[in-house]
Amino acid sequence: MGIVSLYIVLHFWLGTVGGTCSQFNSVSCDECLQLGPQCAWCTLQNFTDSFSIDERCDTPEALLQKGCSGEFVQFPVTKVKILKDQGLGKSAGHTNVSYIAPQKMRLQLRPGNQLTFQIQVQQPEDHPVDIYYLMDLSASMFDDLKMIKDLGSTLSKEMAKLTSKFRLGFGSFVEKPVLPFIKITPEELANPCRSVDFECLPTFGYRHLLSLTSSTDKFNEIISKQQVSANIDVPECGFDAIMQAAVCGDRIGWRNDSMKLLVFVSDADSHFGMDSKMSGIVVPNDGECHLDDNNEYSMTAHLEYPTLGQLVDKLVENNILLIFAVTDGQRQNYENYASLIPGATVGVLASDSRNILELIMNSYKELRSEIDLEVLGNTEDLQLSFTALCQDGAIITGHKTCSNVKAGDVVSFNVTIELKGCLAGPRKFSLRPVGFQDALEIELESQCVCDCHQTPEANSTFCSGGRGALECGACVCNPGFVGPKCECTEDQEQISDCRAHEGAEMCGGLGECFCGQCVCHPSSFGRVYGPYCECDNFSCLRFRGELCGGHGECDCGECVCQSGWMGESCNCSTSNSSCMSLDGSICSGRGKCVCGKCECTVPGASGERCQRCPTCGDICSLPRSCVECHLKAKDPLDECAVKCNSIHATVSNSTDFEESRAASCTLQNKDYCILSFSLVDSDHGSIIYNPKLYDCPEPPNALLIALAVCMSVLIIGITLIVISKFLISVHDRKEVAKFEAEKAKAKWQSDTNPLFRSSTSTFKNVTYKSAGQQKSDIS
């Protein structure tokens, strides 16, 4: 065995920027230390001015830069003192052998700091073993009694291979002998098995029958004398028996340096907690030993069954490992119980307990092959983390268990402790391997008090001639005096000057009243100021995470915007450049520029600059009717109100307007006159400046036009007639000429017509009746 190695790893979180501790307004050294492990206090007199006592609290580096030499800096560091470390096992050469090293240590730790140390644990080679066999003797276990009659001898023989210091004990249990768990007729009380024609013992709760002994013969003899009993319900009072076997250590005979195994054997579930209320038992189990002179549990009919929490506390307190040997039907129930009990294991028991020896040996070897570290005591406000360094070289972060450990093997655990806050006093707790008697005892103190407070200088001349005590470089004033150097008296008139009104908190709760004036506390967020500390430069509105949008300064809760910006959070630009359309108009004449963005006011208008409007005309056409009405009407205010109000427009003859924001409009009306005006958008609508009408044509001369039209018609008519006569004349002449030409070409005499034939007439005399016909030619 080597000498135990111990190493300390300290983690200090140091501020990366000087002055981080001074932002928290500490007025004493103790308050400063509690701000964090990076903070220190300067005790040098006159280190700060009268109203900056909090500047004494800062990181050590920052204090040195401010001129506070190291001898005046209060900066407690983590301290570790090993109180007992005698080495591991027999090789250490000590009379009292310990299997954990070190055995005792004292830690002084600042809140927020982490401390890492290492402990070593050795698996003993010839460790004393105490096994207490706790058996269910209800009627269903009748065949099991016969099977274990030689258990003492066989178990002792097997255990002798593993340890030379083995002892056995025996106890039994059935059920609370009260209704409704048993029948209470005299016959049934005397023989609970009467109904099945079998002789058995009266029902009992728990009996301790054999204290731990190395004599296997006594164990076998006790087993041979046992008889079963009976009860009505299935669950038994097994937890009552476990509790008494755990707390009655003197009667059972547990050794302080032994591995304590309690073998619980049953084929039924166990009652716990408030199950006994069914029998009218309402007094909670007190976790005390109640074995009478006959070694029977005397309070079985008076105290409730113990709860699982009570069992866990007593088993851990007395370092007892529980082995549940139960039948397969009860395995799941007892596995659930074992998951809540440190070091507990579950084995499946044969119906007649034929495998009990194998079960005990396997459970023992399983327990011996594992080293599991447990924390005992009050660890509130502590954060513990573990890293297991096992014998096979495995490093398991976040675990405190090593498996497959053999006798003589040494394993290590790195333990990291972090203190969350100051402790009221020293805190004691311990780290112990499950099943071991040895433990590391730890005494922890929080470093939240400065040593300089232990030696104050009473009535110091530094404190205005003895008006207070000088502690850690600062004055602690006597009653009736206030101020950094106790220079002011604490009378009513001076205090009232520090209140904004009657009943108000002094200096608004954000400062101290010194000599009738408020001295505001510094803040990590910024500056607090004002006659009553009512103002600050950090409580203004933010825009996109920046105070006053990054375009202004916060003054007493209100943003004072830089030039070119406006709004509650200075997030609105006063420039219209981002709203300017391509035609030079603001928001295309269909909206207004708000915070550098267009808000379209014309229905149907959309787009970044309101440039899209399917239902709109151009920006100059919309106010046309209003402008024309204003120019033509005798009383524009009355006659044009409807037309102008419908488009949210007003007409102004003023020439005083910002031309860069105006849209110049030039239109032609129905009379062909030129209509011009300037259009400017405002928050309340459009404003029309300088409406003008010019270049209108002269009206036509109606008489002249009529005369001209008549003369034109007459001239056109005469012209048409002349042309018509001329054309007819030309046509006639052409026809005559044609006729004359054809006449000249004829070849016959003009007085004889070769085509002429004389006419012939035929008459019929209707009065002539001869057969022949009479013809007459008349020429």
Automatic annotation (TrEMBL):
Sequence ranges assigned to domain Integrin beta subunit tail in this UniProt record: 620-701
One of the protein's GO biological processes: integrin-mediated signaling pathway
Keyword annotations: Calcium, Cell adhesion, Cell junction, Cell membrane, Disulfide bond, EGF-like domain, Glycoprotein, Integrin, Magnesium, Membrane, Metal-binding, Receptor, Repeat, Signal, Transmembrane, Transmembrane helix
Record-annotated membrane-spanning stretches: 702-728
Assembly mode: Heterodimer of an alpha and a beta subunit. Interacts with FLNB. Interacts with HAX1. ITGAV:ITGB6 interacts with FBN1. ITGAV:ITGB6 interacts with TGFB1.
Matching PANTHER family: INTEGRIN BETA SUBUNIT (PTHR10082), INTEGRIN BETA-6 (PTHR10082:SF11)
Similarity comment: family membership: Belongs to the integrin beta chain family.
Name of the featured protein: Integrin beta
Organism: Carassius auratus (Goldfish)
Gene: LOC113111015
